[in-house]
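Morning run. Coffee first, then this:
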Amino acid sequence: MLKGKNVAVCVTGGIAAFKAVSVVSGLVKLGAGVDVIMTAHACEFVTPLTFRSLTKTPVVTDMFAEPEHMDIAHISLAQKADLFVIAPATANVIGKLACGIADDMLTTTVMATRAPVLIVPAMNTNMYDNPIVRENIAKLKRLGYLFMEPAEGPLACGASGRGRMPEPAEIIERIKLEIAREKDLKGLRVLVTAGPTREAIDPVRYISNGSSGKMGYALAAAAALRGAETTLVSGPVALEPPAGVETVSVVSATEMYEAVLSRSADSDIVIMAAAVGDFRPESVSEEKIKKSSCVSELRLAKNPDILAELGRRKGENQVLAGFCMETEDLISRAREKMERKNCDMIAANNLKTPGAGFAVDTNVVTLLFRDGREPVKLSGAKTDIAHEILTKAARLRK
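And here it is:
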């Protein structure tokens, strides 16, 4: 995913420096070129040899130790990088950057780059909450520097609170968000739904379906990677919210209806990938229904049709895409659904097709278009299919 991208990972002298090893390792596995810059204090926690072994490139630690045959190091690294990541970022380096101090290789190189700079603070809770540190962070944000918020939990000093460096996987996801894809959807607002809905029967039982949410989450993640302002309305799933996405959690179809309709008017592209339940129980028992009650009949009421309502409200320059899962007569039923619900595009998939389905990472879909253009058949990873769907949706809007 990061092949052809260059990341400069700057490591400062905090106990969380050991996490930077996993960040660098993960970036290398994703195909990125990685240069590591370490402060003198960072070398007290992790050795340069560790990073050199992972990146197969020299680790820069001293401004005055560069070989004579090399370019001026801080300038060449500054020009080479697509992104600078300072992780961990101590209060000291944040303060120096905020004041324009360039007295070592790290600060000098950051001052010389035009690449975006992502700062990942990690420090004692009281230090992070210190008004001086907060003002330095606010100043750097105003100047366009990017930040990740520290996590909460036990700290190395024995205290507990905000100040922990985020986990390496979270940092890598943020790096991917910044540089993995061209920001061709920047300026667009994309609304995606995902997952199943649940309709309560009693406090412990419900009606639902087997949707895992993977397709919808892949769509939301792809939209964010490409620069769109992305909102994901999700039913109950066992997935982590995508980086850079506003995630709204709902349970029932009625909750999803309200969450989607309150946001749809401001969206340029709406993609309904959720498997919304068609029915709900007419009444919900306040207490658990006992087996001895011998309930043999469950009366159902229709849920609101979110996609149909979106079709009625669709704006002039808004693209509406739906999904249609069937087990027979796939294309004809999908085309009829697209027309009836006023969709611009629909992704049709058959649950019985090998490689398709709810809980797998792959899918097989046929994209149908209301304007009469030729259908497109897609198969492969849901992440790749998500990008294809977004590309087609963006073209329809143009």
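The mean pLDDT is 92. Good start to the day.
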